[in-house]
Amino acid sequence: MFARRKGLMAVVLTLVAAMMVLVPANATAATCGQHSQAWIKTPSNGILHSDLPSDRILTVPAGTPIYHTGIVVPGTIIRFQYANLDANTAFWVNTVQASGNCVVAHEKTVLDTSIFGGTRWGVFAVWVAWEDNQIHSKILGTLIVT
After folding, report:
1. Which fold has domain 26-145?
2. Radius of gyration over alpha carbons of the chain, in Å?
3. pLDDT in tens, 58-85
4. pTM of the predicted model, to two decimals?
């Protein structure tokens, strides 16, 4: 009986340890410095941001790089979805993992828009907020590539 309990306890401890690896670490305001958010930006044309109204339109010429970034739980990513508003197509862009200070490095997740001339895209973002460790999603707005 004791050996059976010991084996069961080992299984429970292994499962708990595995769950701890899967759950992102909690962050604090001191760690992150600002609230959780997600956005795309261009070098000079503008921004679509989770804090702004979702009816915003960002118009860029084809070939403009789009950077994906935000503030999220360290070690997690932001997933951006682009849904073509004129066709039944979509694609996703996953960022790199956020660093220890909750920042997703925008330089590492760049979308080249040179192949998207003449298209309109609904842009959505999904991320884990450090304030509540929950998944959040938001329509960021519309990207028009001329």
Report:
1. Immunoglobulin-like (2.60.40)
2. 20
3. 999 999 999 999 999 999 999 999 999 9
4. 0.80
Q: What is the 3-state secondary structure (H, E, C) of 82-124?
A: EEECCCCCEEEEECCCCCCCCEECHHHCEEEHHHCCCEEEEEE
d(CA 107, CA 66): 10
Take residue 58 and report the two structure tokens written for it. Answer: 């960002």
State pLDDT tens for residues 99-110: 999 999 998 889
Neighbours of 48 (CB within 10 A): 25
From the list 94, 96, 142, 77, the residue with the least C-alpha distance to 116 is 142
| Spatial separation of the C-alpha atoms in residues 90 and 95, rounded to whole Å | 17
pLDDT in tens, 44-63: 889 999 999 999 999 999 99
Element (H, E) at 138: strand 135-145
